[in-house]
Design a protein that fits this description.
seven-stranded mixed β-sheet; about 350 residues; alpha/beta; Rossmann fold; 2 domains; 10 helices; Quinone Oxidoreductase, Chain A, domain 1
Length: about 350
Amino acid sequence: MQAAFLTEVGHLEVRETSDPRPPGPREVLVRVATVGVCGSDLHYYRTGRIGAQAVEFPWIPGHECAGTVVEAGAQAERLRPGQRVAIDPLLPCGRCDQCRAGRKHTCRSQKFLGSPGQAPGALTEYLVLPEECCFPIPGAMTLVEAAVVEPFSIALYAQRMAGLGAGSKIAVLGAGPIGLCVLLACRAAAHVTGYVTDLLDERLAVARACGADWTGNPRGVNIVAALTRTEPQGMDFVFECAGEQETLDQALELLKPGGTLLILGIPEADRVSFNIDLLRRKELEIRNVRRQNQCVAPAIDLAARGAVNLRTLVTHHFTLSQTAAAFETVANYRDGAVKAIIHISEDS
């Protein structure tokens, strides 16, 4: 079978690789149909690492994926060949204290698709996966939407973690796919006023299509000054989705006393800093968001019911042979790219 390998920083090649092994008793063999290019994939592409996780080349990246079950293990209970599935890329151990406490997303022995030293990624024709990681999708949902379920489920977890209610004032700093998914999740949950910022006007246009009440580009607007004039009491919640020191600083300025900062962005730097004076005087809460924590099924339900439109985020389509072009397009913000989907099989 074929797969896309990251062979060095900034270089991807499609190569032949070994065919998949047969699925185990509680596993399924999935023919991969669609893979989304994620910001964390780009970290590996641009720098070869995220924190202590460094790529040993060659490596198959990718984790936002969907496909069709072609074979099910003898003890698989929910899935059968022919079913189309969205995939949770987290492979938990199921035994550690975190898994037993309902925190599989912080499993001490977890493997994650496309993470160095854990599990090869989804940019391949077939994957063998635990049945519990695969979620059937309804007939009306496309496999493109099913791939976008993965980032949306992270945003849904962040929205649930925030606990926002009707009338909440939120700011989303960074209108990439995760930031836009956060906006969609929050607006589906409650009547909120949403403010969105980004350095790219094309992404702000998508944010407005997703229901943003206000958008601003820091290149032309002093974000803190503008939003403080509009909401002098401050924001209830700020979702930092850019992974930049500048947006972390803005978040503390924008939050009201007792407000909550939720960090979804992944900084390329190993360390970031916070103004402890603002944190202390405002008694701000900082919460880090780690993956999707059992939100894949409810994310599918929201999209299937039409509560959110995940198609709005998809701007570009590529084939497996065009994987290098897909990563170059997204990494360099070309042609208004928001979410690029790589089509692996004809199923998509």
